[in-house]
Amino acid sequence: MITVGQTLPAGLLTEFVEVEGNGCSVGPNQFEVSELVKDKTIVIFGLPGAFTPTCSAKHLPGYISQIEAFKAKGVDEVWCFAVNDAFVMHAWGVQQGASGKVRMMADGSAAYTQALGLTLDLTTRHMGVRCQRFAMIVKNGVVSQVAVEAAGQFEVSSAEAILNLL
């Protein structure tokens, strides 16, 4: 599992881009994580899946509502991360009002989740391999804080908990 002081692993994430520009076409675009985090402070929070109960009622809405507080504490970007495809992450972000606030980053094959060591096996619940609920603060690609929830919990990865760590 990724720990404080480690550099994020190399890998690709996908994001649905609504407006063509800056070398990105409309639709799903792949991004190299190491390029996205360079010279930035990023809060990344991961969750089991888009449109799931706790994720939709508490986790994502907390970060959306607190985006100005994160920016005031020097955070350049906040990412929502899940093992879903870019289309699903985008639709969920639109439904939740995340556009322009929280980047909806997709790890459709769970490859990046595996590289982080944060997989959650929900195959017995017919959901496949997912991501554990977590949040981390990343400064110039290096993890400065990481909080992984115990199974079935939602405490240490909330927006409020991470704001208190900044």
Automatic annotation (TrEMBL):
Its EC number is 1.11.1.27. Keywords: Antioxidant, Oxidoreductase, Peroxidase, Redox-active center. It comes from the Bacteria. Transmembrane segments: none annotated. Pfam families: Redoxin. It catalyses: a hydroperoxide + 2 glutathione = an alcohol + glutathione disulfide + H2O. PROSITE patterns: THIOREDOXIN_2. Residues 2-166 form the Thioredoxin domain. It is an enzyme of class 1 (oxidoreductase). Belongs to the peroxiredoxin family. Prx5 subfamily. Thiol-specific peroxidase that catalyzes the reduction of hydrogen peroxide and organic hydroperoxides to water and alcohols, respectively. Plays a role in cell protection against oxidative stress by detoxifying peroxides. This is Glutathione-dependent peroxiredoxin. It comes from Leeia speluncae.
